[in-house]
Amino acid sequence: MALRWKSNGDKKRGVPVEVGGEPGYAIRNSRFASPIESLWDGISTLPGLFELACKQYSNKRLLGSRELISRETEVSSDGRSFEKLHLGDYKWLSYGDAFVDVCNFSSGLVKLGLKKIDRVAIFADTRPEWIVALQGCFRRSITVVTIYSSLGEEALCHSLNETDASAVVCGPKELKKLIEISGELRTVRHVICMDDDGVSTDISSATKIANWQVISFAEVKTLGLKSPNNADLPVSTDTAVIMYTSGSTGLPKGVMMTHGNVLATLSAVMTIVPNLGSKDVYLAYLPLAHILELAAETLMMGTGCSVGYGSPLTLTDTSNKIKRGTMGDASALGPTLLTAVPAILDRVRDGVRKKVDAKGGISKILFDFAYNRRLNAINGSWFGAWGLEKIFWDLLVFKKIRAVLGGNIRFLLSGGAPLSGDTQRFINVCLGAPIGQGYGLTETCAGATFSEFDDTSVGRVGSPLPCSYIKLVNWSEGGYMVTDSPMPRGEIVIGGPNVCLGYFNNEEKTKEVYKVDERRMRWFYSGDIGQFHPDGCLEIIDRKKDIVKLQHGEYVSLGKVESTLSVCSYVDNMMLYADPCHSYCVALVVVSQPALEEWAQSHGVEFNNLSDLCKKYEAIKEVQSSLAKVGKQTRLQRFEIPSKVKLLPEAWTPESGLVTAALKLKREAVRKQFRDDLNKLYDA
Fold first, then answer.
1. Distance between CA atoms of 411 and 404, rounded to whole angstroms?
2. What is the 3-state secondary structure (H, E, C) of 607-659?
3. What 3-state DSSP class applies to 145?
4. Among 131, 37, 155, 24, residue whose Cα is nearest residue 445
5. Is 246 a residue whose pLDDT tops 70?
6. DSSP sequence for 163-226
7. Whether 494 contacts 469, CB under 8 Å
8. How many other CB atoms sit within 10 Å of the CB of residue 515?
9. Highest-confidence range of 272-281, 371-380, 387-396, 552-561, by mean pLDDT?
10. What is the pLDDT of residue 7?
């Protein structure tokens, strides 16, 4: 039976509810009268859920990783060198074998002298050992400190020292970073280094330099195998994770999450994703130090799914680190489920569009016709583009596009930032799968709202998850009130069992954004501005920190404008900047190399390289006029469209410190690095 995405406009997805605390307008999930805490009988902690799944699905494959066949160096036409990987098939560890590894690692920690009062940091890229280490710590009731592998020295040192971490689990490249700051780390006694294909790790030298006990991941498991210990399991209220955000401003804050907090989010999402279970295959590639990925993988494991690991740089056949002619992670795995941040989905959209435009001719005509037929079916009440016609267009046009992500995707989850309506529609049409767009924060264990699979509206983030109440409270300064018509508006406040304890060792900041009401419900004040639609779904319309008042009194929401203009084909990333002393905005635009170079070649604009092209007057004028066109089409105000732009050739990456690991803009870091360029745009 063909899946129909036409949303029932009369369906109530969220309904008003009376709650305590600050007055406002509150909504709950229409199917649950009160927030749920656990859907698994007798399970109240994460190690309990993992053990249950390992027993229930003992012989099923759980953790998969690809064999490294070779590392090769490719030299581009401008002389730059790039590492390319040739990766083989996935090799799997069953649920039963994974549980044995977890138990051995857990016992190995005891042999090293680690106790319940200790904290263990995981500072590594997403991979199977990450999960083994996490669950191993949980079986000893040890709190895990999660740290992004891309974090800079100052933030890394701050995170480890603030939590008094006794041990760090890392990879070879992270070990080098640790050694560089070893003199500043006060409490680290043990470093457990994961093995890496083709990357040598000189553990003996590291031990001498840093005066730590440095031991391999495999050795810890061997220690545990030889000296097994019974588990010392936590309770629901124990702190499972102190998660250090990559931080868009200043030093990262450590969010304290209990086992009960995370389990509430997992239980809620379990009720939303259709038919989630042991037949599913999940592609894991986002940072596990981000709550979105940690929650997603933990849920997959709790329901019997197979989890295959990849990376953003090896995701598809055309990804940057994949050797030409070999398969990316998605092609090799064929996942049915995928979690993505909008930046990844934007790249998929842009890549498909560029290929279609490059082919031109009958191929482009067929694509445009099929795309519009299916788009009309999604947007309207007529379903002519489903049934037999859907099968026809799938075979003729969309099958190759679906193959980009393995060909089997049946459901996508998007989170971490707002997803543009254009991208959401494009992915819906081309992949033939619904997107569940969610909204949440680290402070709420990623849980707040989630769009249901039969809701095809764009620009919204769904109704409250069954673990949460969502309340809007007045923000008078910004002019957002719950009495506004036609929809109540205000600051988004989230309450429920998924709301975390607060920030580690930062009581002042915790009291500022966390409040407990007279009914003992814990609320988090998000700083985001939202409005409720009549069916109970939430739309994010602003953010307190992103609003700038221009010289003549107009308000500009920087994030909203950036999200709107990012659909421009020339934009890979951008930052809008507004100086309150001026009446207009300017922008830094990281250009899409293929799009800009293709334009230049077709218009006879000569250039030596991308950096040279970005300085050309013709290129700047073309990008600026394209942004203005998109702005007018999307009904931005004139003062919201950047009057001047600076084109940048180098991508903003987490390693550069200009975006977070979830690819969110670090506005202050960008402003500081490009201060002179921004000043020149206003002075010109």
1. 15
2. CCCHHHHHCCHHHHHHHHHHHHHHHHHCCCCHHHCCCEEEEECCCCCHHHCCE
3. strand
4. 37
5. no
6. TT-SEEEE-HHHHHHHHHTGGG-SS--EEEEPPBTTB---HHHHHHHH-SEEEEHHHHHHHHHH
7. yes
8. 16
9. 272-281
10. 43
Please tell me the total number of residues recorded for the chain in this structure.
Answer: 684
Question: How many other C-beta atoms are found inside a 10 Å radius of the C-beta of residue 453?
Answer: 18
Distance, CA of 172 to CA of 654 (rounded, Å): 18
Instruction: For residue range 411-468, list pLDDT tens digits in order.
Output: 999 887 778 788 888 888 888 888 888 999 999 999 999 998 888 888 899 999 999 9
Q: Measured between alpha carbons, how far is 342 from 635 in angstroms, rounded to an integer?
A: 22
Dist. CA 197–CA 677, nearest whole Å: 42
In this structure, the number of other CB atoms found within 10 A of the CB of residue 602 comes to 8
**Residue pLDDT, tens place only, 609-632:** 999 999 999 999 999 999 999 999
Structure tokens at 311: 């990376």
| Matching residue, tokens 């406009």 | 9
The one-letter amino acid at 74: E
Residue for token digits 């190995």?
Answer: 108
User: Token pair of 243, please?
Assistant: 């998660």
DSSP run (H or E) holding 3: none
CB 260 within 8 A of CB 467: no
* C-alpha count within 13 angstroms, C-beta hemisphere, residue 683: 6
Task: Collect all residues with Cβ–Cβ distance below 8 Å to 636 and sequence separation of at least 6.
Answer: 561, 564, 565
Residue type, 541: I
Residue with tokens 């997107």: 435
Whether the link from the prior residue into 594 is cis, omega within 30° of 0, is no
Handedness of CA 46, 47, 49, 50 (dihedral sign): positive
Strands 463-464, 449-450: pairing is antiparallel
Reported as a pLDDT band with limits 50, 70 and 90, residue 353 is: confident
DSSP classification of residue 105: H
Which positions ≥6 away from 101 have C-beta within 8 Å? 93, 132, 221
Burial of 126 (0-12, 13-18, 19+ CB in 10 A): buried
Residues 230 and 134: beta-carbon distance below 8 Å: no
Q: Using an 8 Å Cβ cutoff, are 295 and 268 in contact?
A: no
CA distance 292 to 303: 17
Q: What is the pLDDT of residue 389?
A: 74
Q: Mind listing the domains of the chain with CATH numbers?
A: 14-38+337-543 (2.30.38.10), 46-234+296-333 (3.40.50.12780), 551-683 (3.30.300.30)
Dihedral of the alpha carbons of 33, 297, 445, 121, in degrees to the nearest 10:
150
**Distance separating alpha carbons of residues 35 and 496, to the nearest angstrom:** 6
Q: Encoding tokens for residue 596?
A: 């800009």
Note whether 316 and 338 are within 8 A (CB).
no
